[in-house]
Amino acid sequence: MALKEGLSVTQTMTVSKTDTAIHHGSGKMKVFATPAMVAFMENTAVACIDPEMVKGTDSVGIQIDTKHSKASKVGAIITCTAKLVKVDGKKLSFEIEASDEGGKIGNAFHIRYIIDPVKFMSKL
Question: Which CATH superfamily is domain 8-122 in?
Answer without folding.
Answer: Hotdog Thioesterase (3.10.129.10)
